[in-house]
Amino acid sequence: MRRKFNKISALKLGDHWCYDDDELRREVVCFFFSLYSLNDQSNGVFALHGYFPRIELVVLDNLAMEVTNEEIQDAMFSIGPLNPGPDGLHALFYQNQWETVGPDIITNIIANQFKLVFHLLIAQNQVSFVARRHIIDNIIVAHEIIHSMLIKKGKKS
Which GO MF terms does the UniProt record name (predicted)? Predict the structure, then answer.
């Protein structure tokens, strides 16, 4: 049985091509050593400036606003009554006992405020971080692509 291996057989170093295995190894080690070293890489090939989305000051100011009791109550009553919280108690408990526990609920308010910013920070392909999107969606798309490629194998399209 014949096996195919992925192998780098040549690299362009400056203006010439290198085919020597030992020199190729040294160049690869040197490249990754410099890539992951603690040296300043702000002028390097992989500069990150401009790759991350910017959040406008207005949005940041909105996130820093004081949370009102009405917002806390709206968040608590927007949860389905049988959904358990991190403490294992259902939301129905908090909704029925609102007068006692209402002022202490803050987690959902923070989450609701961050929902306003998530679309600026999370790409479309990062489905597991966005409400009503599921990681299985990407798996299904990948499966469909691979399936269509296998069906069209040998055909020109």
Answer: RNA-directed DNA polymerase activity
